[in-house]
# Entry
Amino acid sequence: MKKPEVIVVSKDREEKGNYVKPILMGLGYTLGNFFRKPVTVQYPDETTERSTRWRGLHRMNVDEAGQLKCVACGLCAAICPSRAISVLPYEEEGKTRYPEEFIVDELRCVFCGFCQEACPVGAISLTGVYDYVDYSRDDFVFDIGKLRDPEQFRFKG
Ligand code: SF4
Ligand code: SF4
# Structure
């Protein structure tokens, strides 16, 4: 029977007792961090800046006159992969279309940003609001009123 090959690894190890240098290096690292400014944030009293690309709760944008930019074309609802948007259009004779009802179910949403990308008039955008909390699922179904000002729902503790 062939003898199994024995691989000796101990010869590559450092000599016993050579632990002082690694310990000092570790202590030095700890000491360096000890005097560093803490990175912990006392949320919700303090928050950190979010990237401008952050995708949080939706906002329906308005023009200079305060009117909704949305023309109820339905592109956002069509492209939404989670079917979180529903739009009910309304058009007065010879006037601009606008949404009579515009709903975003924030719990269905996966915050992909497709609706924002698809909108031809920049009427919907995703904000930096990520910490909206509530007790009922229905409260996460945003209508036009809520979508006009999602910042009001930012968690304040
Ligand atoms: S962000 Fe994506 S998932 Fe959410 S409503 Fe828009 S398209 Fe739908
Ligand atoms: S938000 Fe934009 S894409 Fe969606 S219905 Fe309104 S205009 Fe069309």
